[in-house]
Each structure stands twice: as C-alpha cells, then as structure tokens.
Design goal:
mainly alpha; 3-stranded mixed beta sheet; 7 helices
Length: 221
Amino acid sequence: ATTEIYTLSLHDALPISMNIVDEMKNLPKKNYAEMIRKAERQKEAFEKVCKNEDLVRVMDEGYSNLLKKYNNYNSPSDMVLAHGDFCSVNVLFNGNKYYLIDFEDLELSDPACEIAHIFIDFGKPFDEKNKGIFLNKYLEFRDEENLKERVEKYILLWFLSGMYWGLVQLNKTLSNSFIEEYKNKEDIKIAVSNEKVFLGKLVDMGVLSRSVFEFDFTKIF
C-alpha cells in the first residue's frame, strides 16, 4: 500500500503575503558552524551557574575533545529547506494520511543535521538497524556524500547541546525547589534522570570521561 504524505499549507505558519522562495535566504541556517556556536552559547550559560569547578573542568575537557572532531571540517552538502522541529508530536495522521504541522522553526539546513535530529528526537531514538534502513531509503532519492559519517557528527552536537541545555534547566528546577509543588522532589529526579541520558550518550561516544557520573548534580549550583 502507498502512504500519502501531506503538509498543512505554509500559510498556517507564515503570513499569507510571504513568498517562501523569495524569503528562503532570510531563514535561520543549521550547519556544523551554527551547531557549534549554539553549543558554545549553552556551555557559557551552564558555566555561569555551575559552582563546582571540578565538574566545569571535566565538561570543558569533553567539549575540547569533541571540537577536535570538527577541526577544519565543513559540510559538503547544499543547504535544503527543513522543518526544524520534525518530531512525533508535529505529525498528525488520519487513516493512511499524514499531516506535518508547526512550521515555526522552518530553516535552511544541512540534510545530515535534520536527519540526526530525527534519529534522536522522533519518538524512541533510532537503533543502528533503523538508522541504516532510513539512510538507505533516503539515498534512493537524494545523493549525499558521506551521509552516515556526517549524521553521526551531528548526533554528537545535538547531544552536547542537549546536555548543556538540560543542566541549565536543572538549575532552574532546583532554584524553585522551595515552591510547594516541588517538595516531593519528583521534578528534580526527572531532570537529573534526563540529564544522565545525555551524559551517558556522550560517555559512550568517548567524548566525556565516566568520572562525570561521580558528581551529585543536585549540589553543583
């Protein structure tokens, strides 16, 4: 059976007067350089609130290790129009018809960056088998040089950004712990658990030292 894919009109997310072709040059861009700048901004936000110098040092070493992978590395791909937030909650379906919604984050992206985001954020993270199926099918429609290698590099950057973002959010959760609804500490437990997922991925990928798990993340701010 053939599954038909539909998108809601761009007019649902953009002013009717906007000509998307003319305006594409003004859209945000997502490539290696931009992802590294994003991680750098989030790293700085974390270091402003973290009071544990040992943890800052461990994290900084990991950040330096990761950046070595991108030294003089440029994306060989042309930028393409990308949804920017392609996750399961933005896909509606009715029978065999699927609708893509929420074009607020529309951008120009390296295709490998968008695919990496899908692999880690579309429902349950893709395992290696499903990554292979997806990439093989994708390459039937579009020729991309070193696609798998590039996707894996972007996955590292997505996890790095997610790790720093999560730590900043954890600080916000802890700073509100005096409020009545936080007294059971469930929000703190969830925040710490989510953060350890990002940390675990980066440890498994050889970016961070396993010593990062020795820190009590409820006492680093």
